[in-house]
Amino acid sequence: MIRSPYPPKSMNPLLPPFDKGGKTKAVNIRLISLREGRRGDTALLLALLGCLLALLAACAPAAIPSPAPDLTQVARQVRETAFAELETTAKAPAPSATAYRTQAPYPTATPYPTHTPYPSPTLAAQATRTSATAQPSPTSSVAFDAFAKNASILVYEDNYNPNRSAGGFWIKDALEVAGYKPVHVKDEIGTFQQMLAPENTWDLILVAEESRAMIDGPFITELLRRMDGGTPVVFETWKTYNYYTGGMAPVLQRCGVTFQTQWDERSELVALVDHPILRQPNRIPILRAVSNVYFPRSPGDALMLLPGSRATLLMGQYHAHPKEYASIVLCQDEMLILQTFLQHNYNKATIMNLWQNYTDYLLRKRFALKR
């Protein structure tokens, strides 16, 4: 009799039932008597072992297969889930256009400020003057010629070295050649101060500061007072860099310009605008320095317009920069011409023509104000 190899109370349905004592019911297997010493013993013994192995394999517990999923139930669940999501989306409120508008926009690059050309204060005066002089009546032409011939012109000319070949009183020479009768005080600063006394009336004041004097302080105050009273002024200095924050500051501020840079060497100046000062009575398209240098070290300054300025930049270093790098400026309601370079570095005849143009334009301005 052979006992089962499985433990008691096994749930394997292939095993024989257990009795109450936990013992398996006996399995009667009749064994065939074997004759010792015969050749078939070995074969019979092997067959017996095979039967035992087969019996053990039949009694082994079989794996309980997992139940197959119900595909119909799975499909139903997927469909119900999809319908639920669609219903939730339909019930959700749609975003309004206002919500999109309230979102912060993406930052945009700030464009570079564009340059707005400053209105030229000379346009109205030029138009009036053109209508009066394009086809002048004999009376107006004769009246101006008589006024200009007897105009009271005060000239202060501080020449660096009038005895040098490149020196000399060029402004005095220019006015006398044109037929004017200036009061020329040379570089006598005391005499110039006396001539600026309130009791003295002038139609035009020309100042050329090239050497030792610094025309600032009380002189600047008096020149501004004269301009406010209707007397035009031409002011030449190549030392703006020295006192543009000091005594020269009131002139620059009233003119609407500021110091930009100091020249490194003699500079060529070109016309920045088409203006009567550069073509009447002499045409001056360009100023070129000559070889016989009068004073080679930093012979000029460049100016630039202040924001909102109404000044007119007449000549400068670069034609492509008409609002900066200028050295001849018309400003203060056309009552002031500011020149910021040492003129003795240039051709004398050209400089004389330039000062004749200064004088003609500003005397016409003075003549129109007096009428």
Task: Give a verbal description of the structure.
- This protein is an alpha/beta fold and 371 residues long.
- The chain contains 11 helices and 11 strands.
- The strands form 2 sheets. The protein has a 9-stranded mixed sheet with strand order 2-1-3-4-11-10-9-6-7, sandwiched between helices.
- Helix 6 (170-177) links the parallel strand 1 and strand 2 (183-184).
- Helix 6 (170-177) crosses helix 11 (348-370).
- The N and C termini lie far apart (155 Å).
Summarize the helices and strands and which ones pair or pack.
Layout: H1 41-59, H2 71-91, H3 97-101, H4 122-133, H5 138-149, E1 153-158, H6 170-177, E2 183-184, H7 189-195, E3 204-209, H8 218-228, E4 233-237, H9 240-243, H10 249-255, E5 257-262, E6 269-271, E7 286-287, E8 301-305, E9 312-316, E10 326-331, E11 336-339, H11 348-370
In a nutshell, what does this entry contain?
With 371 residues, this protein is of the alpha/beta class. It has helices spanning 41-59, 71-91, 97-101, 122-133, 138-149, 170-177, 189-195, 218-228, 240-243, 249-255, 348-370; strands spanning 153-158, 183-184, 204-209, 233-237, 257-262, 269-271, 286-287, 301-305, 312-316, 326-331, 336-339.
